[in-house]
Amino acid sequence: MVYVFAGTGQAGSAIVDDVFGHRRVSTPASPLVFNSTIRDLRNLSNIDEESQYGIAERHGLVERGTPGFEEQVTGGFGRNPVEADSVMEDHRGELVETLAAHFDEPDGTPGDIPFAFVCLGLGGGTGCGIAPHVADAIKEYTDGVAQIIGVGVLPNTDGPVAEDDDEQISAGRQAWNTIYGLDRLEESVDGIVLVDNQRLAYENAAEGRFSEYNEYVASGLVDLISGSTLERIDPSEYDEVDPPVVDLQDVVTSLSFDTRGTNSRPGYATIGRSVTMTKSLVGYLVPFVGDREVDSSALSRLAASKQTLSGVSPSEAQKAIGLIRAPVEHISNEGKRIETSTIRRFLESQCSEVNLGVALTRRNLASFTSLFTYERDQIDRIAEIEDQADQYEAQNPI
Ligand SMILES: Nc1nc2c(ncn2[C@@H]2O[C@H](COP(=O)(O)OP(=O)(O)OP(=O)(O)O)[C@@H](O)[C@H]2O)c(=O)[nH]1
Ligand SMILES: [Mg+2]
Description:
The chain is an alpha/beta fold.
C-alpha cells in the first residue's frame, strides 16, 4: 500500500519536495514529479532522480536518468497549459506505464494505491496542462480505486491583467490558466485543496516567501497522512488513551460532496495549521521538567485564521475536518491535556459536518491542521479569477 504524491510543474513539485523533507514520510508515501524545466528538477532536494520525469513536446515523458535528458527536455510550455495538455494527451499511455514501473507488485499485478495527492501551480502552463492527466492515469492504473486529492496553488492576480512586458506573465494570463486548470482538474479528482499565493501579497518580495509557504502546506499534508504509521506508535500500547482516529478516507469524504451519489463532485477546501511546543527549552535539556500546557482553544482558532485562502469564512464551510498531532502525555495526562472537546466544539461552531482525529507523535510539538470545505461557487476568489480570465480572453482571443 502506498500513498502517491505527484507534483506537476514548478510549484507542484516544490510542495511535494517539502512533503518528503519530513521524517519517515517515505514509509507510507512515494513521490513522482513531472516538469518541463530541468532547472526546477535540479532544485529538488528530497526526491530521487528515479522519481523525476521530464516532459517534452517531441519525446513525451523522459526519465530523468535517460542519457541525453537535457537535449530532450528543452524547457517549458511558455505558460501555455493548452499545449502541455495536448502533449500529455498524445503520451497518456506513458503515464500509466510509469505508474506500473514504480508500483507494480513483483508478480506483475498493479500496486495498491488507495489515495493520491496531485499538486500543481494553477497559474502556469505545465502543471495546469498535465495534472489532470496524471490524476486520470492514477485512476486508470488502480481501476478507479484510488481517491485523489488535488492541491492547487492559486496565483497572485493583483498585477495588471494585460501583458505589460515579456518577462512578467500577466495576472490575466495566470487567471486564464487557473480556470483552464481548475475546470479540468475538477473532472479528475475527488477533492481540491486551494493554496492562494495572494495570501502572501501583503509581504514585499512575495516570491521569496514561497519556500516558507510551501513548507507550511507540506506540513499540513503530512499531518493528513500522519496516523500512527509515520511515528511508529501503536495507540493500543497506551491503556489510558483512546484517541479518535481519522484516516485519509475521512479526509476525502470531508473534501467531496455526494460521494455515494452519481453526481459526486469535488469540494474546494482551504488548509490551515497551527503548532506549539509542548516543552519549554529547559524541558528539552532536562527530561520531565518544563512540560507546557497546550491552549486548545488558541490552537484551533489559530489554525482557522491561518487558512490558505482569504475571503471565505469557516463559518460558511459545508464540512470541516481536523487533525491533532501531539505527544501521548498531552493526550492522556489530565493537567496538560489537549482538550479535544474544546477543539471539536470550535469546529462545530463553524459548521455542522465535523470530523476530528488525533495522532500521537514522539516530538515535543502539538499541531492542529484543519480543512474547511466549500462549494466552488461559494469561493469569491475563484469568481474574481474567472472575471479576470474573461477579461483576458476578450483581449487576447485564444
Ligand atoms: N506557493 C508557491 N507558488 C509558486 C511556486 N513556484 C511558482 N509558484 C506560482 O505558481 C504559478 C505558476 O505555476 P508554476 O508551477 O511556476 O508553473 P509550471 O507548472 O511550472 O508551468 P510553466 O508555465 O510551464 O513553467 C505562479 O503563480 C507562481 O507565482 C512555489 O514554489 N510555491
Ligand atoms: Mg515551470
